[in-house]
Amino acid sequence: MTTTINATVYLNDTTTFRGRFGEGLPAQLREATRFTAQLPAGDPASAVIALLRTVFDELNVDDPSTEWAQQYRRDRNRSFSVGDVVVLGETAWACASFGWDSISAEQLRDALSH
Known about the structure:
It is a single chain. By secondary structure, the chain is an alpha+beta fold. It has one domain. Helix content is 28%, strand content 30%. The protein has helices spanning 44-58, 67-74, 105-113, and strands at 3-12, 29-39, 85-88, 91-95, 100-103. A five-stranded antiparallel β-sheet has the order 2-1-3-4-5. The longest helix is centred in the middle third of the chain and has 15 residues, at 44-58. It is globular, with a radius of gyration of 14 Å. The model has no long low-confidence stretch (mean pLDDT 90).
């Protein structure tokens, strides 16, 4: 059985962003897209990682296969990168150099207010 989840993608507009989310200059997030997605069946932690991988892959190819990623491209957004954020349900994940870092609601709120 799959579960439907709300997803929001935020791009980090800090031009000098380096390293991990929350280190160095403050992140400056702006909403790029929102959509509903299906969490794959199975272990919940593995399902979340699988969905995050799908988001990353879809937002970094020239010809994405999902409608939400195609709209993201039509809106002329850049490729998804380190420091950008995906919120799945009520949990925020920052793209890291290797994998994903969970970020707090406070970190997300601060990055959205800049």
